[in-house]
Amino acid sequence: MNHETVFVVDFGGQYTQLIVRRVRELGVYSEMIPWTTAADKIRQDRPTAVILSGGPRSVLETGAPDLDFSVLDGIPTLAICYGHQLMALRLGGCVEKATHKEYGYRTLVPTPSGLVVNEEEVGEAERLRTKPHSLVAGLSSNQVWMSHGDQVLEVPEGFTVTASTDSCPIAAYENVGQKRFGVQFHPEVSHTPDGRSILRRFLFDQAGLKGDWTSESFIEEQIAKIRETVGPEGKVLCAVSGGVDSSVMAALLIQAIGDRAVCVFVDHGLLRKGEAEQVVETFGGHFQANLKAFYEHDRFFGALSGLTDPEKKRKAVGEQFVRVFEDHANELQGCDFLAQGTLYPDVIESGSPTAAKIKTHHNVGGLPDWMRMKLIEPLRWLFKDEVRNVGRKLGLPEDMVEREPFPGPGLAVRVLGEVTPERVRMTQEADWIFRSVLKERGQNKGIWQSYAALLDVRSVGVMGDERTYEQPIVLRAVESEDAMTARAVNIPFDTLEHIASRIVNEVQGVNRVFYDLTSKPPATIELE
Ligand code: XMP
Question: How many domains does the chain have?
């Protein structure tokens, strides 16, 4: 490996990804590896440091996740929760089976013997075991978050207990000479207020890392990698959708190989107001990219004509993407690689033996044979917020970098019933008003997705003494961590009222506005 790397060994803990994120926030590149293949990977790649995660099993059970600790010789190791117990057990200590589970806040009491240091009186070995090197002494807050059953009863020979809590006598232990540290609690969660100091001490003071992994260094490294993979002549096909991931990916490729990054944008007429224009302006204008923008509204609306079933609509949109690629094969053929905006959470989930299978949305139907090229996935090491930072550094407009997730079939799944240009226009305008007002009032913070959809019914209203018989808009705004679950956002009533009034007054054809309060599950985020 050519940069400092911390491997986080996953024993199935619920916070493992969070450990990776915390380490990266401290400027150190980190990767999660499953325990099943960890020993080989560590032996082969020799990471700069290793962190062992928590996990739901008991280390005393047969078949529980395990690790050959000999591969860690000479590699600074921080063992958390399950890892803390496993390290004690495997290095000759003792773990006791739980009689009850301990869950919640505890106060950490650093062990007094670990605090008294007189440099002149103690020998080197003793000095190393005492306070200046303890990960847990002198924290700004001694509150820690516990979530475990079993606990360490005896530390291995050569290790010192450095902290306890009232219910856990060995809450932290270490052997500074061997650079091995164990903590029963979770320094990575926000409920451990000074957990960051523990990670920082481990990474910088003990493992000697520099912490120089930044968006800039990532960009530099990826540009070099892309150039090496693609070679001096190779061309890469980058499909840009207007979303964050594909935009950042394309911007990175443009920077690496200029106009040999062939950017393709299919304007299907189903994006939000102004977004298609922004893609063309950003890539064709600002970046002067080799952009092939295909204006295909008629083709998509033609294929959607008469369709009302959600699945048929999705399929029709997916098929038309393929048709566009086929029809423009002459202009697009000759690329050696296809770039994809895969992100790290997808990589983790598809490689993990424990995680559930990722939800895949097939936005594009079976691709033509000539499109089966070698894949390039330059963002596969990043989390979403890191992708956004890279996008900013590459000069993408803030609107694009902050864009919310958007379904591949676009507004076809937000215009319920038949999708016509007129109904899409109504949805786009209402959507624009909704999101602009939230933004103007600073009420869009923390929202995962917010949008307007058009229902497939009519209702009676009255406007300027005239009877109306028109269609209703539904507004939906949700908070979510990962789109697997979601909750309606508590938008102030006066804002909703203002938005409703503007939509009914400004969007022709709409005479009623609803706000969707349903969570996911049982509803989904999109209406179709
Ligand atoms: P649902 O509606 O299933 O959506 O709760 C979960 C997340 O996925 C997005 N979504 C899609 N993304 N192609 C995509 O690329 C699709 O067909 C699709 N359908 C839903 C949705 O916006 C939400 O973020």
Answer: 3
